[in-house]
């Protein structure tokens, strides 16, 4: 197990950013009732901390299913743009979902990946992305052609602008630090679902 | 296409009845991981433009997709085999049950009544205990005459009570010759 190297990728040249800050930049660009599915733990905690938009859905378990849930929402409402916020550890659990999304050619789905190379919430144990696995290469290999590492905050914003104006699916991966989330989500599943469904019953 | 003609209804195969009842209940999104018994149903669903049919890599993914679509106003069902159901305890316990999402499942039952594969026979025994432990409504369909009533009433109850439901296709229905 020596010399674990990954194939050349832009991951090495990306700035290490912050999840709360990037989520803030995303949310500030959402003006058309876009749906946002927050993956478990820190990903939806920082979404919650950025203002509880009614079109946000906060997962409380089901690690790895952020992209499938967001895909289901996107299938049901093709006129609404849908964002999935997922962590590296979670995505590694359900890599087949990338191929499912690619094959569907869904236009209104964007996947944003927060990759800090660790299972941060359980004690910062390293994930596979900490050594040899590159999630953008996997997304591309799964057939999602519009898959990019965000080089810095400005590039992230540019990729979000593209996701808001061009057909998807879009896959935007970011490298982030290990700062703790700014808040934590209220854990009432039925309240979360009903609020989300009420918001999604309104036209985008 | 609902028919009131009982003689015509009797001529339908189980999968033709299932397809018709899904339509009459506005269930148009199908996610599945394939199974030999389900094959004629899957083929018929693919051939009918009413249905959007998605074949993900895993059953968990299939459940996640229909959970999301339900919340956005589109009704769906996941088709799978017994061994696939065995991978679902976590998603049912953390998504379908606590969020009260009417996730519909149709499970082709392997592992009993003539199974040749020991792993299937063993994993089959976990299915009903998991469903019962999670408090998920489940019913096995054993006779052709019961298909319409069980599928229709379980779908209606799932949406009326915001609860997941498991329709089990018994070998008595799918393997027995008449």
Write the layout of secondary structure elements.
The complex is a heterodimer of chains A (204) and B (178).
Chain A lengths: L15 E2 L1 H9 L7 E4 L3 H7 L7 E3 L7 H11 L5 E6 H6 L2 H9 L4 E7 L2 E2 L5 E2 L8 H7 L5 E3 L3 H13 L4 E7 L12 H12 L4
Parallel strand pairs in A: 1-9, 2-3, 2-4, 4-5, 5-9, 8-9
Antiparallel strand pairs in A: 6-7
Chain B lengths: L5 H6 L2 H11 L2 E6 L6 H9 L4 E3 L4 H13 L3 E7 H4 L3 H8 L7 E5 L9 H16 L3 E5 L5 H15 L3 E5 L1 H4 L4
Parallel strand pairs in B: 1-2, 1-3, 3-4, 4-6, 5-6
Helix pairs in contact in B: 2-3, 2-8, 4-6
Describe the structure.
The complex is a heterodimer of chains A (204) and B (178). In chain A, strand 2, helix 2 and strand 3 form a beta-alpha-beta unit. The mean pLDDT of chain A is 95. Chain A contains 8 helices and 9 strands. Chain A is globular and about 50 Å long. With 204 residues, chain A is α/β, with parallel strands linked by helices. Chain A has one domain (10-199): 3-Layer(aba) Sandwich (Rossmann fold), CATH 3.40.50. Chain B has a single domain (6-174), classed as Thiamin diphosphate (ThDP)-binding fold, Pyr/PP domains (Rossmann fold, 3-Layer(aba) Sandwich). Chain B is built from 9 helices and 6 strands. Chain B has helices at residues 6-11, 14-24, 39-47, 59-71, 82-85, 89-96, 118-133, 147-161, 171-174, and strands spanning 27-32, 52-54, 75-81, 104-108, 137-141, 165-169. In chain B, strands 2-1-3-4-6-5 form a 6-stranded parallel β-sheet, with helices on both faces. In chain B, helix 8 links the parallel strand 5 and strand 6. Chains A and B meet through helix 3, helix 5 and helix 8 of A and helix 4 and helix 6 of B.
Which structural traits does this protein have?
heterodimer, A: 204 residues, alpha/beta, two-stranded antiparallel sheet, 8 helices, 9 strands, 36% helix, 18% strand, B: alpha/beta, Rossmann fold, 6 strands, 48% helix
